[in-house]
Amino acid sequence: MITIDVSVTPEIAASPEALKRTAANALQMPVGDIVRIDVLRRAIDARRGRPKIQLRLGVNADKPTPIFDKKNYKNVAGKPPVIIVGSGPAGMFAALKLLEHGLRPIVIERGKEVSARKRDLALLSRQHSLNADSNWCFGEGGAGTFSDGKLYTRSNKRGNIDEILQQLVAHGANRNILEDAHPHIGTDKLPAIVSAIRQTVEDCGGIYHFNTRAVDLAVKNGAAQGVVAADGTCYEGIAVILATGHSAREVYQLFDRRRWLLESKAFAMGVRVEHPQALINEIQYGKACRRLVETGLLPPATYSLTAQTGGRGVFSFCMCPGGIMAPAATSPDEVVVNGMSNSQRNSPYANAGIVVQVFPSDCRTIDGASPAMAGMALQQATEQAMFVAANHSQAAPTQRLADFVNGRFSALPIKTSYLAGNTPAPLHALLPDVILQNLQQAFKQFDRKMRGFLSSDATVTAIESRSSSPVRIPRDPASLQHPQLANLYPCGEGAGYAGGITSSAIDGVRCAEKIIEKVVSS
Ligand SMILES: Cc1cc2nc3c(=O)[nH]c(=O)nc-3n(C[C@H](O)[C@H](O)[C@H](O)COP(=O)(O)OP(=O)(O)OC[C@H]3O[C@@H](n4cnc5c(N)ncnc54)[C@H](O)[C@@H]3O)c2cc1C
Predict the structure, then answer these.
(1) How far is CA 453 from CA 278, 348, 397, in A?
(2) Which residues sit with their C-beta closer than 6 Å to ligand 1?
(3) Which of 35, 68, 262, 308 sits at 20 to 30 Å (Cα–Cα) from 295?
(4) What is the CA(21)–ligand 1 centre distance, in A?
(5) How far apart are CA 28 and CA 10, in angstroms?
(6) In 258-401, at which residue ranges do the beta strands (DSSP E only) sit?
(7) Confidence at 155, pLDDT banded by 50, 70, 90
(8) SS3 163
(9) How far is 249 from 130, CA to CA, in rounded Å?
């Protein structure tokens, strides 16, 4: 197979025949000699208002890229058990890696399986009734299940990313995630993929325990032997992978109570900004490209923005073109917002988290708690303040972006895509200073980079507070075990070692590999 990079119009990119002609031209060979073309990578260059599609093409390949073969998984019934707490991306991909090497994953999950979880999400959006064990963050598949399913990561270890993408395709994801520079699955497709992964684990002899919240670790002679569930059952294994995500505050509280090592870390908080998608298309692609978007030749436009203000970074996060905003609180007295989109990305809105770095020095230690818990306390207090601003409901506080930036308030009703409704509120008077002032400055900078960003149609909704964990559960860099608790592998986003679906999945694989190494060498 010969690999070439080409930059073509959206029309050519959409036509296999035109692509063959482009490749033949580039390689100076007859079109008839090309057996098949594989698109290996796809990216959009929207600069200068004339979008081009940049493609890496595999020309004349004999057979398509092979997909991970499920035959690599072993039957693990009766094999040594490894307890995995949490069935999010970190837990799921750790389980799959253990299957490949003959260890038996026992997955402990506080939430419900995916279809029952959907009903709780509907209740939360429509009736504001929040189930603390089954919501947008908790339940089968973790916070990734009803997410946007964007699969980008800043990690540059391509081999690891390919392994995750291959596994997703083997469990039902569209093959195009293997070629897109910014792969995306969509919230309508993710639940079936998550269920297919569970099916694989169970078919091979692994076990899932739903509605089972871990409340303690079983520890003997300085080593984790298993976990204790809320009903008192102890699940024992040769190792414990703790992959509970960044919203499992009880897990941090458990560590704090037991005086097991925890560390504070920088995190980020801010708002979710929303524009009409048509406006973002116009800013990014130019007015002339409207038809290309309407006919599907160009996808809804995205953006990625950063600013430095007051010595800290402000950046866009989880931008959802054609998306909707979802209520992501995990406790009934908080408001938290996040974003997602379906595979078609066809809502009329574009939303993104715009968050400000928060450092441990910004946070006040709470009496009696370890300083490591201070960030979580600020995060929780801000979420609770938003609940009060929402008149004790899940209808999140919202303000027009221009009013927010100019520090003025109008109580006019505002419509956004947020599933649980909005409460007009003076966010400029409610957010902690460190967040407010830096956001206001950054939005002005963003408007200079994307003319029209500060549109009167744009809104901000708060609070976007769960973009990363405010606490780290430390681990030895070589063995990945907790420094005080042998056989305990803090893992994924909640332990502070990942951010997003792909990097959490990669971290799950890393922890599983360390357990496998230990078993093989003992
Ligand atoms: C609405 C939304 C949209 C998002 N969109 C994207 C996106 O497009 N792309 C992206 O990369 N990231 C996205 N994210 C973030 C992404 O989902 C997380 O980064 C990722 O899921 C973290 O994986 P994890 O396995 O470390 O933890 P989680 O996914 O948080 O999983 C932790 C699991 O542990 C379980 N658990 C917690 N405590 C306990 C306990 N005590 N006992 C038993 N089980 C427990 C939870 O129920 C949960 O299932 C989104 C998040 C949300 C909420």
Answers:
(1) 12, 16, 20
(2) 85-91, 108-111, 136-139, 142-144, 147-150, 213-214, 243-245, 248, 250-251, 318, 326, 328, 338, 340, 492-494, 498, 500-502, 504
(3) 35
(4) 44
(5) 22
(6) 263-264, 267-276, 306-309, 312-320, 324-327, 337-340, 349-358, 396-400
(7) low
(8) helix
(9) 16
* Buried residues in 300-309 as b, exposed as e (16+ CB within 10 A): bbbbebebeb
Give the integer Cα–Cα distance in Å for 133 and 306: 34
CA distance linking residue 69 with residue 309, whole number of Å: 49
Contact 226, 234 (CB under 8 A): yes
Supply the mean pLDDT for the chain.
92
Residue 91 Cα, ligand 1 centroid: separation in angstroms?
Answer: 10
pLDDT in tens, 448-473: 999 999 999 999 999 999 999 999 99
The bridge status of strand 324-327 relative to strand 267-276 is unpaired
Q: Which of 522, 495, 521 is nearest to 510 (CA)?
A: 495
Predicted model pTM: 0.90
Give me the phi and psi of 209, to 5 degrees please. -115, 105
Q: Which two tokens stand for residue 405?
A: 């930036």
- Report the b/e string of 72-94 with b at 16+ CB within 10 A: ebbebeebebbbbbbbbbbbbbb
Instruction: Assign 42 to helix, strand or coil.
Output: strand
> What digits encode the pLDDT tens for the residues 24-62?
888 888 787 887 788 888 888 876 667 889 999 888 755
Render pLDDT for 358-367 as a digit per residue (tens, 0 to 9): 999 999 887 7
Reference 316, options 181, 440, 442, 151; nearest CA is 442
Mutation test of ligand 1: which of 107, 110, 419 has the most ligand atoms closer than 8 Å to its C-beta?
110
Residue with tokens 């599983």: 512
